[in-house]
Amino acid sequence: MAPLHSLPRAPKGLPLLGHALPLMRDPLSFVKSLRRSGELVRVSAGGMQIL
Predict the structure, then answer these.
(1) Closest CA to 19 of 7, 48, 32, 5
(2) How does pLDDT run across 6-22, given as a tens digit for each residue?
(3) Which of 29, 34, 45, 50 has the fewest beta carbons closer than 10 A?
């Protein structure tokens, strides 16, 4: 398995908050939008990495 840092990161993350805002605002649309980034992407929320 590839190391986490080699996986593509989901676009439009903010410093410190990461992807927390789009996840809270419209989680289903955000998760559906991740398909464009690849099969497995990194998402961050408050400093934590989520796969």
Answers:
(1) 48
(2) 888 898 888 889 999 99
(3) 29
Q: Give the confidence band of 30 by pLDDT, cuts at 50, 70, 90.
A: very high
CB atoms within 10 A of CB 41: 17
The one-letter amino acid code at 23 reads L
Q: How far apart are CA 28 and CA 31, in angstroms?
A: 5
Tell me the two tokens of residue 17.
Answer: 């908050």
Other Cβ atoms less than 10 A from the Cβ of 34: the count is: 16
pTM: 0.73
Which residue type occupies 2? A
